[in-house]
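Open question from group meeting: does this chain pack into something compact, or does most of it stay loose? Before anyone orders reagents, we agreed to write out a predicted structure and look at it together. Recording both the input and the output here so the notebook holds the full record.
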Amino acid sequence: MPKKKFYVVWKGRKTGVFTSWNACKRQIDGFEGAQYKSFISLDEAEKASKGKYKDYKGKNTKKPTLTSSEKVKYGSPILESIAVDAACSGNPGQLEYRGVLTHNKKEIFRKGPYQKGTNNIGEFLALVHGIALLKSKNKEDVPIYSDSKIAMSWIKQKRCKTNIHFDASNKDLLALIKRAEKWLKENTFKNPILKWETKAWGEIPADFGRK
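Structure tokens returned:
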């Protein structure tokens, strides 16, 4: 699913906090010695903008600092699991999805690119792919993490409830969706489908790492 980020520019055409990558890019593209970084919350971005770039350079700003109560609330992810994610350039746009082992980010499957897709479609297909893979290996006790509530709800409904238009350019994607829906209707599974808590744990391990 799309993940909201905030961008701090310390050195660029304009400086400050920007709420989209495109707005940030306009300040740094072709600007010699540009200094910028992304953050996952507005509060952290605003705090960083008042400091210096050197204090954040090379540091992981994709995972926020939690209070003690938040740490108790979210706990830690189950490492003996797999994590899935999708990436889509545009909406609709070119779509990819993949699955990794949560504990070491080792990629175990990757599909795409497919044309005229969406992140939600990719998240749905990634979940079905992961479920089917684990079932084929008799590992139905292994959890699967996703950061998409929409895709998780589609799995429960056994249907990809997208509204995008399908034509000759993305007919292969439609065929894949129909295949996934058919699998869900004809098979049962026991794997827990769990929500990846980005706020507490940072980006999901399967994240493509793109802006």
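Observations to bring back to the group:
Strands lie at 6-11, 16-18, 35-39, 82-90, 93-101, 107-117, 144-146, 193-195.
The chain has a mean pLDDT of 89.
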